[in-house]
Design the sequence.
């Protein structure tokens, strides 16, 4: 399966040139960019690991693409995403978030059902990969 | 407009009998509204022979303190303070029988935090008043002091996106069809296919509550099975608007509690439940981390005609105060009423921190929202993937685009319909961000994306000629004119 979190997961994977274009759009809007990676793609895993701080005051999209490739050298078998933060009043949150690297195989998620009173069911979703310890989930 | 009649002295003003409203103090052409006044703009159509200023004064009177005759008990109060004051009457640009009347209301006339109380005054008795042929509430200025007495949207656009982990693009939804008659089991099938195929949300329709063919608990249980399956299939957070509309507040709370127990991220209500019920549900939603979707069922009975009723821009303002998170606000290009400029005005009311005066979009007042959360507008009704460039151009990024027929009617099935919409959307946002002239190049961008997505190719082929091009019944009165330089 393909994890389809993020703004562009239904499109074919981006080239570095396409990533550069989207990053430049964010920079032109005054947003700070950040690179994050994880080996736990649970939909509610909010805090992926940060690849350094968000880049504030950076006018050049090439710097982010460079850092992305540095991150890929270390965590190329994980999910990596680029996030844009907008500090303007009334927003102060993320404006764009898209996956730029994914494991070669994505085993997907297990859905567990616990039958409780009446016909009610409690659901929980677990990535198949997270049975293994952190760091050894994807090759 | 002439300034009417001079003020009467107290003896003449309060001697028993009938007096024109403008002489009773409801017409004050020199009045300059205070920052704390509520201001209402009415479109008035006086009966033949009725002076428009007297008509405006009558509206001010009947929507505040007046009755048809002089009463001495006024003198036991600070009557001048509590009288609403018509202070300006303008002819409308396009119809000699209609006038714009501006009326200012003292803040103390209204109970804090109560839409019911506000509307009981402003649209209470006055709309049936005999000297008027027709009356329409066009717009209101709500002072910051009053805005701050309301909770506002339970969740708001920013937190909704954070909860859904979805940024940078409009959200996608679909209403389950046929809207009546499916069993709970079959209903959940539509939800599962649509969400798995790429939508963020599915939606109950306004009249799906608890009927013989599907009782509410069955719908909730099957829908949540579908939502969780789809979430596991995609790794995304999904939701379905479970309509908790019911005959009593007690029943609505019960249904909402069950939706929460099942782990739903969102519940839905209909506008017809009434302002107080809406405020109660908004408070419940804030207390229970729930997004609150409002379907504007019934609004066209009073919003659509230009001469009589209440403009939808006013309803949108009341709903932002009342505290819903989603509100249907028009599509421009779809099957339901929606002039582009007027619709832009509605969207601005939902999403902006501050609305400047903008006559060309129907906004007559400067409105400060005092950090109340933003409402997510919802575009629904007769839209399809082939219009994606126009939808993003007119409606922007913070909107839920709902393709009901445009998802479920896809020749290759519901999931394929959902995928077509999602690919079209992502391709268009990508092109916009990459600096393309996406409005002009829209069809080319979609055709290009369809090369790697068969469902999109089929959607574009089947719906390519569908447009809804009818004259609008509610266009703005003021059209910007090109200035000569």
Sequence:
């Amino acid at each position: 399966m393909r994890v389809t979190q993020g703004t562009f997961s239904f499109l074919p994977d981006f080239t570095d040139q396409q990533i550069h274009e989207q990053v430049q759009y964010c920079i032109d809007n005054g947003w700070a960019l950040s690179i994050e990676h994880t080996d736990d793609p649970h939909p509610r895993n909010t805090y992926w690991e940060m690849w350094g701080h968000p880049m504030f005051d950076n006018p050049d999209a090439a710097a982010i693409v460079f850092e992305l490739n540095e991150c890929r050298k270390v965590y190329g078998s994980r999910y990596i995403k680029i996030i844009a933060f907008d500090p303007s009043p009334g927003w102060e949150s993320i404006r764009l978030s898209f996956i730029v690297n994914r494991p070669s195989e994505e085993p997907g998620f297990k859905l567990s059902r616990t039958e409780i009173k009446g016909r009610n069911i409690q659901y929980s979703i677990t990535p198949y990969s997270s049975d293994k310890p952190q760091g050894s989930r994807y090759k | 407009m002439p300034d009417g009649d001079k003020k009467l002295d107290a003896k003449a003003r309060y001697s028993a009998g009938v007096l024109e409203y403008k002489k009773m103090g409801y017409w004050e052409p020199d009045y300059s509204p205070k920052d704390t006044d509520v201001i209402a703009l009415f479109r008035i159509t006086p009966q033949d022979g009725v002076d428009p200023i007297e008509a405006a004064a009558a509206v001010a009177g009947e929507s505040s303190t007046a009755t048809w005759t002089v009463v001495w008990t006024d003198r036991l109060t600070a009557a001048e303070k509590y009288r609403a004051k018509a202070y300006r009457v303008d002819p409308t640009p396009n119809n000699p029988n209609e006038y714009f009347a501006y009326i200012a209301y003292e803040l103390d006339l209204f109970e804090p935090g109560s839409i019911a109380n506000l509307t009981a005054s402003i649209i209470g008795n006055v709309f049936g008043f005999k000297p008027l042929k027709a009356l329409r509430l066009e717009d209101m200025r709500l002072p910051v002091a009053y805005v701050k007495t309301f909770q506002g949207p339970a969740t708001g656009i920013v937190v909704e996106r954070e909860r859904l982990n979805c940024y940078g693009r409009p959200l996608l939804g679909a209403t389950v069809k046929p809207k009546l008659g499916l069993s709970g089991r079959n209903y959940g099938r539509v939800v599962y296919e649509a969400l798995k195929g790429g939508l963020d949300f599915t939606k109950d329709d306004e009249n799906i509550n608890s009927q013989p063919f599907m009782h509410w608990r069955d719908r909730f249980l099957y829908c949540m099975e579908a939502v969780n399956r789809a979430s596991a299939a995609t790794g995304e957070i999904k939701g379905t608007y479970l309509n908790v509309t019911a005959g009593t507040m007690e029943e609505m709370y019960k249904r909402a509690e069950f939706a929460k127990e099942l782990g739903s991220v969102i519940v839905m209500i209909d506008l017809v439940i009434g302002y107080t019920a809406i405020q109660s549900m908004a408070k419940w939603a804030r207390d229970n981390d729930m997004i609150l979707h409002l379907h504007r069922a019934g609004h066209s009975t009073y919003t659509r005609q230009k001469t009589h009723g209440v403009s939808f821009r006013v309803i949108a303002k009341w709903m932002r105060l009342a505290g819903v998170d989603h509100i249907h606000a028009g599509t421009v290009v779809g099957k339901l009423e929606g002039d582009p400029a007027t619709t832009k005005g509605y969207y601005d009311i939902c999403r902006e921190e501050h609305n400047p005066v903008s006559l060309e979009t129907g906004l007559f007042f400067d409105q400060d929202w005092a950090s109340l959360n933003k409402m997510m507008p919802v575009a629904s009704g007769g839209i399809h993937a082939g219009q994606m460039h126009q939808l993003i151009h007119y409606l922007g990024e913070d909107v839920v685009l709902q393709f009901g027929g445009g998802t479920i009617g896809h020749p290759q099935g519901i999931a394929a319909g959902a995928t077509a919409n999602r690919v079209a959307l992502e391709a268009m946002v990508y092109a916009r961000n990459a600096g393309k002239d996406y409005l002009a190049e829209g069809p080319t961008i979609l055709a290009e994306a369809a090369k790697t997505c068969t469902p999109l190719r089929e959607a574009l082929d089947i719906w390519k000629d569908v447009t809804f091009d009818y004259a609008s019944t509610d266009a703005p009165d003021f059209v910007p004119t090109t200035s000569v330089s």
Notes: Strands of chain A lie at 32-38, 49-50, 79-86, 93-101, 109-115, 121-127.
